[in-house]
Structure of Protein kinase domain-containing protein:
Amino acid sequence: MTEMTTGQSPFDDYEFDTKLVLKIIREGLRPLFAPKTTSCYVKLAKRCMYSDPQKRPTANEVHKKFYKWNKCVKGSNDADVDKIKKQFLDADKVVKYCKLSLENIKIICILKKKKQCR
């Protein structure tokens, strides 16, 4: 989820080796979010990265959150909803300068799958 806010792969500035794995496992190292990323998005993403799988949200819960946020951004007259909408729209101003696009993510995923098949 951090990749969508920064436009970079998680831990892009680290060497992918045993040291990184140990930092993730032992020290709880997690990727960083782009500045001005919506707080509700960060909160959900951090829950998804819990080391204890029992504390992570289900796929259904994540889907419901995204569905709710999508409805908020598309329009509402509720003050709380407007606050969420503003956060996402402000974050979009930062995210649009990121170098990663959804199309590039699909290409990266396909290439990784092909490498794993070899």
Notes: The chain is about 60% helix and 0% strand. The radius of gyration is 16 Å. The chain has one domain: 2-117. The helical segments are 2-6, 18-26, 39-48, 59-74, 79-95, 102-117.
